[in-house]
Amino acid sequence: MIDAPGPWASGAFALVEGHSRVDTEAVVTDGEDRTWLQTQDRSPTVRLRANPAYWDRRRGPRVAEVEFRNDVDAGTALDLVCDTVGEVDLVTEVPHAQAERVRRSQHARLVTVEAVRALAGVLARDADGLPLADVRARRALNLAVDRAALVRDVFGGLARPLAGLTPPTPLTVAHRTPDRLRGYRHDPAEAARLWREAGGASRPIRLAVLERWAAVADAVAEQWRGALGVAVEVSVVGAAEERETRRRLAAKEPRDWDVLLLEQGSQSADVPPLELHHAFVGRSGEFRAGPVDPRFEELFADLVAQTSQLRQVVAANRIDRYVTEQAPALFLVAPQVLYAVNREVDFQPYATSFELADTSLRDGHWSLAGR
Amino acid sequence: MRLAGQLSRRPRQGPRGTLRVVDPSPLNWLYITYNTVEEPVRVTRRGKVRPAAMSRYRWRDGGRTLEIRVRDNWYPDGTPLTADSVRRAAQEQFRWHSPHPPGTHFNIDQRTRVEVVDDRTVRLHLPAVDGLALGKLRATHVMSERFWRDLGFGYARDESGEGHW
Fold this sequence. Notes:
The structure holds 2 protein chains of 2 kinds. Chain A has helices at 74-83, 99-103, 135-143, 147-154, 188-197, 214-228, 239-250, 277-281, 294-304, 309-326; strands spanning 13-17, 20-30, 33-42, 45-50, 65-69, 90-91, 108-113, 117-123, 159-161, 205-210, 232-237, 259-265, 329-335, 337-342, 345-346, 360-361. By secondary structure, chain A is α+β, with helices and mostly antiparallel strands. Chain A folds into 2 domains: 13-114 and 339-368, D-Maltodextrin-Binding Protein, domain 2; 117-335, Dipeptide-binding Protein, domain 3 (Roll), CATH 3.10.105. In chain A, the strands form 5 sheets. Chain A has a 6-stranded mixed β-sheet. Chain A has a 3-stranded antiparallel β-sheet with strand order 1-4-5, with no helix packed on it. In chain A, helix 3 (135-143) packs antiparallel against helix 5 (188-197) and helix 9 (294-304) runs antiparallel to helix 10. The longest helix of chain A has 18 residues, at 309-326. By secondary structure, chain B is α+β, with helices and mostly antiparallel strands. Chain B has 6 helices and 9 strands. Chain B starts with a helix and ends in a 7-residue tail after the last helix. The interface between A and B is large, with 107 and 77 residues. Strand 6 (90-91) of chain A pairs parallel with strand 1 (18-22) of chain B.
């Protein structure tokens, strides 16, 4: 991360004002392995200016200056981009519940992207009083979820069901070929049978969720109650508690939940297991909640040993199939990422990050008036 | 023909106007980095790893060596980006146990030996095969000498690069 402005690098833009960084706190995940808890620290304005020496002129940059406004909250920003011109041109990470509001707005349009992100549940395989150490119980929880209903009712159609942990994007087709990976269908009867066989629950399931996805937890809880006949207690982890929840999970300390819903992304579509499957299942994964799985470690080591892209896809697919079968996580959906964008901005979204080199402004944009 | 080819690669017009953004993402710090910094590779709009500060690569020695050809490139302060810039970026990274905020799974083995073959070619001699090293180069930020001297990844602020790349 860049602590201060300066002509430090050869990217499409140069940082000319402000900073956006995180204060970090190390958490030992296993042996010598670490992850970092992050607390944001941003100046009110962060300004980027086009780098005229950037080599890839076909890509950009096409905008002379980018001003990140950190002085307005997300809700106000959405009002500004929808209802005004010149205050805010682009808001990222629009909640799905706000999609229709953006569609109906006078000045903004909704831009969506099939992101390499998974909304999934961490299953505490070592939870007392629940049979989550038994693969039948974990499969039951997955079979009891109606993903199509989640996509329709909670995400307004702007998500895709997950099979395993590899998000379905155009570039991950090879990772998910149908003859190699089958997702969990919605089968309440089979779910109930497996749940009973695994011993059922002697107490309610404690389902925790990060605040943004509370509606998803409510829907999942209702589906579990209906299919499995279990009691489910939903708790929302607020912003103030999120850091401590993540710390305890990463450090493998005692938890006050049995299932935790969260979103995790990958920085590329080439090898999703590096950041997704490893996080949920790997020995040093920050979301692993249960014993180390030696078979997973073998499969991951095989992936690391491959330098051919084709062989990496095959190895990644093998990992995804294994993880799907063993169900150490609750596979839910891959939410699309939503942006509210001023109608005079030709925004080009990225599946794994937020980059602006290829974004341009149309002639009617407020900043070009009088030119 | 060469001129025509160069012209066709240029955008229709130069950079213009101002874009005002509100980005609530907790990864904004990373996006500021990706918008201003280059790494040997970048990731395309659809999510594919592609050469960026490097123009091409090849695996050698059965996957123990990753050879990188560095693109003809310049920093905004007028200094060239060379194989030595990539060497410096890699070796600065190897000074720290856990430089990347996501965690150690993004590390390229600290025991990796970096060899500058010529002005445009650098080789990473890995102690063991790591096929994920190519993607991990996305976290190897190729910075100017001025950056390393005046700021660094947390060096000026905290005197440490741990968790600060």
